[in-house]
Queue: 3 jobs
Job 1
Amino acid sequence: MKLLVVGGAGYVGSTSVEGLVEAGHEVVVYDNLTSGHRESVVEGARLEIGDVEDGARLTELLSDGVDAVLHCAARSLVGESMADPGLYYRVNVAGGVTLLEAMRSTGVNRLVYSSSAAVYGEPRRVPIAEADRTEPINPYGATKLAFEGAMRWFAAAHDFRAISLRYFNVAGATERNGEDHDPETHLMPTVLRVAAGEHTHVQIFGQDYSTPDGTCIRDFIHVRDLAEGHLLALEATGEGDPSLEVYNLGSAAGFSVREVVEAARRVTGRAVPARAIKRRLGDPPVLVASSRRARRELGWQPAHSTLERMLADAWAWREAHPHGYASSRGDGAESVQPERAAASAG
Ligand code: UFG
């Protein structure tokens, strides 16, 4: 297949592109490099730099024989979304609809979308199933859900075969690509920065939750397993009636923040000091997925998603890239990357 991967230079996108190229697909990566990295695009894939809000550009690329689209471009920080909801509606919803319109006008009707567990908000029960209540508690989750709505109506009106994959907490790395965000707010990379001596300690956001050790519980999923999920989902859009199908992708195992810190000590052999501070706004106490539907219908198996494996792979990538992708460019840790400051979509 010829595939357009929108947001294909980001953490999730780039690791998926690796898998898609390995599987023999022709891949065009479309990314504005706001949070993506030019260096993450593997040989064999072509990088086109541009915004998801640029419909003319998307139309031009799609009309060049594209069979299906993987849409991973988004702003994805919960805290940022609370402070600047307009940015999230503009990029995640308006940008997404621009892509849908470009697909409709070029007759490309196969779409796989990177959605999020954030659409559920505070779940009433765990593990969470796809049919459970969706009531996001932040603009990030609300915009992910709004775009799923747009996909559903495009599927009905324009015969799209679309799949939305709701990821839980993505972690780990491949040998080639890993997590390099600025700023970094996610738990695992933050914990590894402490192990590497870049920060003095991990801040644990709240230890008074109603969980066994008082810290939040999350369902971590290896980025390699997500890449496999994307591949299976893209293949699945090749058959069946027009529809939007929704699948959770998680490992079905929950680990607490403290368990992650302890595992990081074991895996890295380093001290990882941690101090509990007050809760972070908008954190649900427990998020664990039921991925039975993806296992049953897509044949998906999260084979790499053990806590140790995710931490070990992320640690290996860090050791090979102590300054993230700046290490590949040889320009050191302190380098300012103007494209990150200037560009607008993720
Ligand atoms: N945490 C800390 N200290 C840190 C960082 C995180 O204690 O320095 C805690 C958080 O409070 C949370 C857990 O670790 O309890 C995981 O936090 P992350 O920021 O790594 O991830 P989130 O669970 O907040 O976010 C993830 C995805 C989002 C998605 C969300 C669903 O990254 O895209 O799940 O709520 F929206």
Note: The first strand starts at residue 2 and ends at 6.
Job 2
Amino acid sequence: MSFPARRSALRALLPGAGVDALLVTDLVNVRYLTGFTGSNASLLVHAGGDGASRFCTDGRYRTQAAAEVPDLETVIDRSGAQALAALVATLRIERLGFESDAVTVDAHDVLAEAAGVPLHRAPGLVQRLRAVKDADEVEALRRACAVGDAALAGLLDAGGLAPGRTEREVALDLEDRMRAHGASGPAFETILAAGAHSAVPHHRPTGSELRAGDLVKIDFGALVDGYHSDMTRTLVLGRAAAWQRELYALVAEAQAAGRAALVPGTAVAHVDAAARGVVERAGRGEEFVHGLGHGVGLQIHEAPSLAAAGTGAVEAGMVVTVEPGVYLPGRGGVRIEDTLVVRDGGPELLTHTTRELLEV
Ligand code: ZN
Ligand code: ZN
């Protein structure tokens, strides 16, 4: 199990944050550090090691905590993080850090009162670790992406993308297929956008019917073992018109440039610029209205952000999406998105559905 290794990596960050213990209250971060999948938990990570660290949940999860977190001393207490903060003296903690990017102002006051000492801001430490995936996580993401590929292939084989079906029907069909392939559910609300709707980046499927000649943009993912996959494909129902073909070729070129720029050490803003430059040189920069991509893992959107305003560089082991899009309001839009692992020798694709323009 990689959980002790993850906690040990977090401990290594504590001195730099100026604290000797961190109160982890973000539930996704708790899951990352312990493997606990329940809906209420907090964790005190002590610089002194796992022996001085404590996991806390409430009575409903006593059995589950024993099974999922057998390697940490567990406190069963409904007040959660408050009970952990109260251990400051017992565990000889001098500077207790808290996730100031996750805790509300009111919750902070409650925790500080329970601790009896001032708390210290320590935002983003676990997120920083989560950005670089370990082997177990890459495997989970690989499984999630494979489910997405299989579900889309099944939908196309069954003739599920056809004129007369509604966006909502097709989206549901795709989600059912992901479940049938082992997903616990969709990774997020499926975007299925036909015709002019494809020009809306985050269109919600409606009752409107698919029609011959439509661009159909499908952005979807599977949730497998807590990990999210994310892929977008844009197809044409029937023969593509010249403008659709041209738009597709432009986005495909931008996407390839973005993928090629995923070299460890490259600033995230440069990765974004590599793809955006292709679109800008074609005079369509204004129609590429979002960032290039994002990290993906226990959350559908997590660090790093591949965007012009993003900070830092891509590192080997990060799992990110590359998803340029060009949207012509009232006509249609194209987005092509893959999920990739950043590697030293070049990125590894986890999503394998063809990137050629499909006419179905
Ligand atoms: Zn997506
Ligand atoms: Zn995405």
Note: The radius of gyration is 23 Å.
Job 3
Amino acid sequence: MRSARAEIALAPDVRRVREDFPALRQTVHGHPLVYLDNAATTQKPQAVLDALMSFYTRDCANVHRGVHLLSERSTAAYEGARETVRRFLNAADTREIVFTRGATESINLVAQTYGRANLRAGDEILISGLEHHSNIVPWQMLAAEKGASLRVAPIDDRGDIVLEEYEKLLGPRTVMVALSHVSNALGTINPVRRMIEMAHRVGAVALIDGAQAVPHLKVDVRNLDCDFYAFSGHKVFGPTGIGALYGKARLLEAMPPWQGGGDMIRSVTFEKTTFNDPPYKFEAGTPHIAGAIGLGAAIDYVTGIGLEQIGVWERELLAYGAQELARVPGVRLIGTAREKAAVLSFVLEGVHAHDIATILDRQGIAIRAGHHCAQPVMERFGVAATSRASFAFYNTRLEIDALVEGLGQVKEIFE
Ligand code: PLP
């Protein structure tokens, strides 16, 4: 075990890192911005902004079809970004990386292709009580269409999935398991490797929603042995409107396409269309070329800092934040899982989460209030909403101090 001090020595130089993020330099309502809403979306480093600008000012052309130089450059940059995503996830082949609009679209793609082709009436889809709506609703829709049923593994009072219950719910009817790697509402890091192994034992296919994992953890899809892995670019310091789906090559090959259009075909006549190979089979129409290139730049930026270093600093922020919040009378943390990413969800006695967020905003502090697109999690803890501070590697202890001070002012107003 490394000592705490040795760990801190490994942390990124936060002051220098912050200079890479123009948005962090602004003031809000006359106060320096304290941005603690990173689970909703992250700010973008200059390297990402430069990549977008460079594409639109120099290389803007459609991909795959042109023979002119700009099209060659744009195709090379787009496919280069696919290779960057492959390396980031440690997938075996770029054929396994499909660009999508984000985690939501990646999950819907799997539900509507793999799911539609493989589910029968009476089959079961197993999710957990921690899921974001985007990893609930697509499965509910599929289950309704197919006469299948949705089963839900419960969570305990800390916000951990109850593994024994999860295991009991797996059975010969389980065709699909869909689990978040990290919970957006509580920060719980799920033991997905073990859970995937259990799913495979009953012959189910496992999709992991990695939207909240990739900004914080080193993900290795081959080590996890997941069948599908979904994430969004904007949560990992990239542009909005772009994300990716990893799928094992043999599954993607066997799956029917989802949307029809240009690029996803090999040949078209009015009688018959033959489809392209993965990943293009799943990328109908002009893709978000600039977005993919921006995502590649974001991944290069994050890996340049190093996810291990990021983890060290974020664990420090999480521990400090939990300790300082606990000092505020009336604050109750929601979600105290054994393994957590840098998310602190809390309620403050007698004050609605929206009032907290509004008052903090007047002090330049951006947090999120609400159900975090995870209403079943709120229900499980008997609250309508929580306030959520979620950290990235560019956050500081001073910003946590500002949050705690801000909460003090909230209390003064309501006392
Ligand atoms: N899954 C989780 C765990 C999330 O936190 C989110 C977004 O908050 C999503 C999926 C959906 O991501 P997007 O809206 O980028 O598709």
Note: The mean pLDDT is 96.
